[in-house]
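## Example pair
The file below holds two records. Each record gives the amino-acid sequence first, followed by its structure token line.
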Amino acid sequence: MYVHEAGNADAPPILLLHGGGVAGWMWRPTLERLEDSARVIVPDLPGHGRSAAEPYRSHEETARKVAEVLEERAPQGALVAGFSLGAQLTILLAATRPELVTDAVVVSAQAKPMPFPQLTLGLLAATAPLARQRWFAKLQAKQLFVPDELLTAYLRDSAGTTRETLVASVGENIRFTLPAGWADFKNPALVMVGERERPLMRDSARRIHDALPGSELTTVPGCGHGIPLQRPDLLALTLAERV
């Protein structure tokens, strides 16, 4: 799994986990604003970006791989922040490897399984080739709030995503439920959701927050499902204050 490091090597570590269908490049606007306040560890998750040759199989397997990255690069633990699919992995890491997560920032995580997942995944598998079409990828990029300066990276990675990775990662995403260990996580945790996200996502944020006593919940005004790309200034400030 490809891993990029940036920032101040002597500063506290932050691990950033990207969402499905994108890659570590989605954190560039946040990294620019963090400057030297942290040592930032940014993996490209299996099946994505520079890790595209390694298929995405499951959240459980991916969380184990991410834990190995932390064991090697931040053995005393790190602030872990994730977006969407990466936010679900953040929850799973906090639940299963709490000694590696000093603080959890959960951004736009779905925590209510969708009904009829096989129907959704069947349609997704049938339409997967569309992801390689530039016009379709541009429409998807707009929904994810990908800025013009990152559009080339999104189009490249969208074209390189395999049907196997797409179906597996989306399947894990839409079936996700909170692991039992989340309620026992003792370190700080912040749950973030966009004001303009779908009711499913806002309900999920409330469910995640309610399941963990002492966690914080914040709704970001004016944002949809794209807080890291719509408000990188806010996210960078939030992370810098918590590290």
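Second record, same layout:
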Amino acid sequence: MGIIAWILIGLFAGLIAKAIMPGKDPGGLLITMLIGIAGGLLGGWLGKIVFGVESIDGFFDISTWIAAIVGSVILLALYRIVTGGRRSHRHA
């Protein structure tokens, strides 16, 4: 898969993860995309470890999308656990 495919999968997987786990998270489109790309890598690695899947096959393969979404949800949950729901408030 090319870099454009990873960016698209990352963007959509990050958006889906944020829709599955609604809440106020920092970052816009770029952070969402990075969560999705890292989630895809995490999901692919977990698929290999847990299910013995060799690799993520391709852009149009459902396993690629499931791995990216599951990985993104895990990363989003870990982020919320680590930050403890803290929000930075700026006062003028």
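Notes on the second record: DSSP finds three helices and no strands in the chain. Helices lie at 3-20, 29-51, 62-83.
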